[in-house]
């Protein structure tokens, strides 16, 4: 199942490409200065100079005699490089994004109180780094976007109701500053040195919050990147032969199709009892385990894909029980606490966690280090409707409604994300739009999503774009193979090729190179292999 890409390890310049893949991964990681990420002007300029040299060397490689899988890998290295180029040309997180610096220290206070000298020393080093991180932020943020600064202030001040990696608490502290205060309160009272480190880190987090608030009115309000930059990103980083207009057309069609199916299910199920909400942690655990058992049973019964022996016997869930859920649930809790199937399919098996287990066992080092969201999120989203159509909820029709509510939610991201980046919507307007159109949607989960979409263009729209790409490829392969087509074999083949752009999987898997030709010309700027100059 994982023996992808025969001949992918030929000698010669392809070996050089493998080395360059490692180089670009290293270049993407910021250097350190005194134990703190170095995002200074000098460090940024040095990285930019190395990118120019790297691009020249990549252009010099002659791929004309390579196999298709090797040429695919060549484009993957271009994609990794262009992602860094885009950071320099457009995103410039070191100077535009206050969240870049907040995320450097936000998780530090989640630590347990140290119980050994080594743990104490490690926590002390982390706490002592926070003032320097804040100093760097204030020095480097020369053109911060007001939308991102407002989000940073919010997260410093408040718990967002969703949870972003914090240890579980029935009553969590309020925001990052609250977590630092909480950590200080959990330290041994007699450990004055460590307590001093903690209080200084807390004061630095507060200083960052106050600096952002004092300067907020003078910041450029919008974090939008504009249509032209968005289109460049789609082609050169995502390796897609699509534009913003294409995405809007796909998104509009799929969004309303999902709303239709949701409303039809609600109508036909109107005489049935509503699904009961989970009432306890034990019930939630049991429902999650029952959901996974049902998923595995259906996958094996229909031979939808291979589940290798090395897979965990049980997969973790993305949604954890909270007593708060009795009265105050975010969107995914509304779904998961009615039925655990949808989220577990998408996030765990055969979705993200299952997918990640496959990827880390790939022999190909270029693909093992590549993760492209149209393929990753597209696969997980494709599974939702595929398993609904395959009968995963045939014993309880009301569960179908939750699947289509989730798909409506994913469809709404097209308009919210593209609207924000083209300047048609502010973040608040995008959130209001999602709350108006998506069942069970509420403010906190919407804000949580929109933070990611402002900072990573294309992330929100890739769920449904990737899903439609996979559906198209299923149809095309079935047409090519006729009676020999087997859906389970198709899924195994797809997954064996890594989490890479579906444009390239389509070329490699089905020999359909029309989209790949367009991508090659845009990205490399040379004739497609086999074409005359």
Spell out the blueprint of helices and strands.
Blueprint: H1 13-28, E1 32-33, E2 36-37, H2 41-60, H3 68-91, H4 93-96, H5 98-105, H6 117-140, H7 146-157, H8 175-186, H9 192-215, H10 227-236, H11 244-268, H12 281-302, H13 331-336, H14 341-347, H15 352-359, H16 365-368, H17 373-389, H18 398-422, H19 427-437, H20 443-455, H21 462-481, H22 487-496, H23 502-510, H24 514-524
Antiparallel strand pairs: 1-2
Key features of this structure:
mainly alpha, 533 residues, globular, two-stranded antiparallel ribbon, 24 helices
Write up this protein.
The protein is an all-alpha fold. Among the domains are: 98-218, no CATH class; 233-466, no CATH class. The chain is 64% helix and 1% strand. It contains 24 helices and 2 strands. Strands 1-2 form a two-stranded antiparallel sheet. A hairpin with a 2-residue loop joins strand 1 and strand 2 (36-37). Helix 1 (13-28) packs antiparallel against helix 2 and helix 17 crosses helix 21. The two termini are 38 Å apart. Mean pLDDT is 94; it is low at 6-11.
């Amino acid at each position: 199942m994982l023996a992808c890409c025969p001949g992918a390890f030929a000698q010669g310049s392809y070996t050089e490409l493998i080395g360059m893949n490692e180089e670009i991964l290293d270049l993407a990681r910021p250097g350190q200065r005194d134990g703190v990420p170095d995002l200074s002007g000098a460090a940024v300029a040095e990285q930019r100079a190395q990118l120019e040299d790297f691009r020249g060397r990549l252009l010099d490689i002659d791929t004309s005699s390579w196999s298709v899988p090797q040429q695919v890998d060549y484009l993957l290295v271009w994609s990794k490089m262009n992602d860094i180029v885009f950071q320099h040309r457009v995103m410039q997180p070191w100077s535009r994004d206050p969240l870049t610096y907040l995320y450097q220290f936000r998780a530090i206070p989640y630590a347990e109180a140290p119980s050994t000298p080594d743990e104490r020393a490690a926590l002390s080093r982390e706490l002592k780094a926070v003032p320097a991180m804040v100093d760097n932020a204030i020095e480097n943020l020369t053109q911060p976007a007001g939308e991102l600064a407002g989000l940073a202030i919010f997260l410093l001040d408040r718990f967002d109701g969703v949870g972003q990696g914090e240890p579980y608490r029935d009553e969590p502290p309020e925001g990052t500053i609250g977590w630092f205060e909480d950590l200080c309160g959990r330290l041994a009272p007699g450990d004055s040195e460590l307590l001093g480190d903690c209080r200084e880190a807390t004061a630095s987090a507060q200083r960052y919050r106050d600096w952002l608030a004092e300067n907020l009115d003078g910041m450029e309000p919008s974090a939008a990147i504009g249509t032209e930059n968005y289109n460049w990103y789609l082609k050169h980083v995502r390796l897609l032969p699509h534009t913003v207009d294409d995405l809007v057309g796909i998104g509009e069609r799929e969004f309303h199709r999902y709303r239709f199916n949701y409303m039809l299910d609600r109508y036909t199920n109107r005489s049935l009892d509503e699904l009961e909400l989970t009432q306890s942690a034990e019930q939630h655990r049991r429902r999650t385990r029952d959901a996974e058992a049902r998923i595995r049973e259906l996958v094996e019964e229909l031979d939808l894909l291979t589940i290798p022996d090395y897979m965990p016997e049980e997969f973790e869930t993305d949604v954890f029980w909270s007593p708060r859920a009795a009265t105050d649930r975010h969107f995914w809790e509304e779904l998961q606490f009615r039925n655990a199937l949808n989220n577990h399919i998408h996030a765990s098996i055969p979705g993200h966690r299952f997918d990640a287990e496959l990827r880390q066992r790939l022999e190909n080092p270029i693909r093992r280090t590549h993760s492209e969201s149209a393929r990753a999120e597209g696969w997980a989203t494709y599974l939702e409707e595929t398993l609904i159509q395959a009968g995963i909820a045939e014993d309880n029709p009301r569960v179908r409604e939750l699947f289509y509510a989730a798909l409506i939610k994913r469809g709404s991201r097209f308009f919210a994300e593209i609207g924000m980046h083209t300047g048609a919507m502010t973040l608040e307007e995008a959130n209001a739009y999602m709350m108006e159109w998506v069942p069970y949607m509420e403010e906190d989960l919407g804000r949580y999503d929109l933070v990611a979409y402002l900072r990573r263009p294309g992330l929100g729209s890739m769920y449904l774009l990737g899903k439609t790409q996979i559906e198209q490829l299923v149809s095309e392969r079935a047409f090519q193979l006729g009676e020999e087509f087997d859906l389970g074999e198709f899924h195994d083949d797809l997954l064996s090729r890594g989490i890479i752009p579906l444009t390239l999987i389509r070329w490699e898997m089905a020999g359909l190179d029309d989209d790949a030709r367009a991508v090659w010309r845009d990205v490399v700027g040379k004739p497609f292999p086999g074409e005359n100059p």
